[in-house]
Write a structure and sequence with these properties.
2 copies of one chain form a homodimer. Chain A has 3 helices and 5 strands; from the N terminus they run βαββααββ. Chain A is of the alpha+beta class.
Chain lengths: 110, 110
């Protein structure tokens, strides 16, 4: 569970299906890049947290949370992230979709 | 991939970790309820689509998309859904969090 502050803040919803899913070398390269990107995101001022899940069929959802649009822009434009975005489009995703949405309200349990 | 119209529309981001994860009877009951809820959601006017993923560790993310706040309110208050929400709080989730966020922009690939 990712602890986020009271709204408003921004969510970046990234849904995708992996290409080469289940191929051990592709999965290993992807996993290493994903872990590195999470480490990198944490260094961006305004980063609030990330949640991620991927099903056995290769469909994944990652939601990252940010204080401001400027923080998202810095993350989107980070040189190392730009390289990984290019790899994603070329090799790692059958399809992907990115949505940016300001969180207006939130509730958690318990 | 869920085809949604051009923004604006609303996203409901539901993140959770299953309780009783890997217990076959609990998983079966949960799976049946989840499938039924997806069928039910499709009947609500203003429903646009749903995306869902769950990892091996039981962490799941479901994002549903809606035209209006009224549509979300109808979905949230549907009697059959209220029953399942109660089961979720009592039996099915170690933790869960719900966020409502209007999607401002979206991009997909390819």
């Amino acid at each position: 569970m990712t602890s986020t502050p009271a709204p408003p803040y921004l969510a970046v919803i990234f849904t995708n299906r992996r290409a080469g899913w289940g191929e051990s070398d592709v999965d290993a390269a992807y996993g290493a890049a994903a872990q590195r990107m999470e480490e990198l995101a944490r260094t961006i001022p305004g980063y609030l947290g990330i949640e991620s899940a991927r099903s056995d069929d290769g469909v994944g959802i990652t939601v990252s949370y940010w204080e401001t649009e400027d923080a998202i822009a810095e993350w989107r434009g980070h040189p190392e992230h730009l390289d990984v975005q290019a790899s994603g489009r070329a090799d790692w995703y059958e399809w992907c979709e990115l949505r940016v949405a300001p969180v207006e309200r939130a509730a958690s349990f318990p």
